[in-house]
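User: Let's play a game. I give you a shape written as tokens, and you guess the letters that built it. Ready? Here's round one.
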């Protein structure tokens, strides 16, 4: 059974940093596209970052470029979302995803001004 389990999240002041972890199990951790999405109340989930584990290519939306990174540890089958210089508009529930099929349970990130 494929499982994605998220850790991290919480409340932070604007300008601060947080790191989310997404532990993946149940399938080979190579050759997949892994994405990070976020969702605010009343809106759909929005992809803002992704990485292809096949060639390491990455995507960052303009809203997070230069502030967020998505390192991974293949040995631990874990991907991370490192968020720096957080802004109040980053407040959302954050989800990790594999191949647009499998989802983590979500983690709340709240940024106070």
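Assistant: Ready! My guess for every position:
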């Amino acid at each position: 059974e494929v499982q994605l389990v998220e850790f991290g999240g919480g409340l932070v002041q604007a300008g601060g940093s947080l790191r989310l972890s997404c532990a993946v199990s149940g399938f080979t951790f190579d050759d997949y596209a892994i994405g990070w999405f976020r969702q605010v109340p009343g809106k759909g989930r929005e992809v803002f970052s992704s990485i292809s584990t096949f060639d390491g290519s990455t995507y960052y939306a303009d809203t997070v470029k230069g502030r967020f990174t998505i390192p991974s540890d293949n040995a631990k089958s874990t991907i991370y979302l490192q968020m720096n210089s957080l802004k109040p508009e980053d407040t959302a529930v954050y989800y990790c995803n594999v191949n647009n099929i499998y989802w983590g349970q979500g983690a709340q990130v709240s940024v106070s001004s």
